[in-house]
Amino acid sequence: MSPLQFQQQPVAPGVFFPDDNTWLVTDTHFFHANIDQYCSRPDGWQELIIENWNRFIQPDEIVFHLGDLALGKKEDTEVGKWEILR
pTM surpassing 0.85? Predict the structure, then answer.
């Protein structure tokens, strides 16, 4: 697994019952080269987020990323499989 790869499972369409297996995440800003100008993040922050994600979030759990996932060119920011919910 590359350092920027998430473990994840697809969400069944139309099924969402928030419980202890549901996570809400926001503002990861992956690949944002200038994020240090806006907030204080430790060295290796991207890898730290992913390490913690893979440590705490189990493959059968659901994660909703609420915004500001990444900043950059599409080909530079694609990691894993994502489903967009509307």
Answer: no
